[in-house]
Amino acid sequence: MQCIISRPDGSRTDALEAHMRILAVIGALAIIVGVGAAAFLFGGFYSVAGTAEDPDIVTWSLSRVRTASIDRHAHDQPPASINEPASVQAGAKAYASHGCTTCHGGPGVNWAKFSEGLHPDPPNLKEVVNDLSPAQLFWVIKNGINMTGMPSFTQAGAKDDEIWSIVAFLKKLPSVSEADYKAWTTPHSEAPAPAAGK
Q1: Matching CATH number, 66-185, of 3.10.20.30, 1.10.760.10, 3.10.180.10, 3.40.50.1580
Q2: 116, 100, 117, 102: which is closest to 173 by C-alpha?
Q3: pTM for the structure as a whole
């Protein structure tokens, strides 16, 4: 049984035909928007300069894509030793030696001036680590994040156990004092070798 629409002039048309017209209009609008977006992006109108602020839609989209990707892929379980003081201290050393303070700073350590030119801004880790699970932190450190300046520590030669130690440190970061961080990351000078003949 066909559904029909009556017009004022007495003519009738099939409802399917009306729906097809609506879909055709929607399709045409989608093509126009797509062509316009392509012209904007590939025509050089969108600035990729680090000094240019991204449009809100770009910032929102990248944030959503990043969050969804991390949530989907971050499934590694932390080792049982993640809360042990030795792991936290080893993580502080690895955090310092891998240059994490350059972009993120640390207790009593300011980030490097050039990191202010990164876009998006590197996060203040004290403010975000409690929002991320150990598995999420591990995945981010291990794999890095495209288009943020966050490198893959695996490609930089870090092993999983070292990355987990950094995660252990980061989970304690909000409560780490400047004195503790300095003690954990300052190389201890070796005792001088005894003089010959003594």
Answers
A1: 1.10.760.10
A2: 100
A3: 0.77
